[in-house]
Amino acid sequence: MADEEPYGRKLGMRPRLGLGFDWALLTRDSLAQSEWIIDFEFRATGPDRGGGNLQLWYLKDGRPQVETPSIYTIGAFDGLALVIDMYGGKGGGIRGFMNDGSTDYKSHHAVDSLAFGHCDFSYRNLGRPSKVQVKQLADSFEVIVDGRRCFWSDKIKMPSGYFFGVSAASADTPDSFEIYKFVTSSAPGVTRELPKRESPPQQPPPAANPGGQTTDQGTQQASSNAQLAVQFTELQNRLSTLSQSLDNVFREVQSLSAKSDARHQDLTKRVSFNEQLNTMDQKVQSIENTLRDYSGQFSSIRGVLKDSHSTLNEGLTQQMTHIISTKSPRIGTFVVVIIVFQLLLAGIYVMYKRKRANGPKKYL
Question: Could you read off the pLDDT of 24-36 as tens digits, one per residue?
Answer without folding.
Answer: 777 888 888 889 9
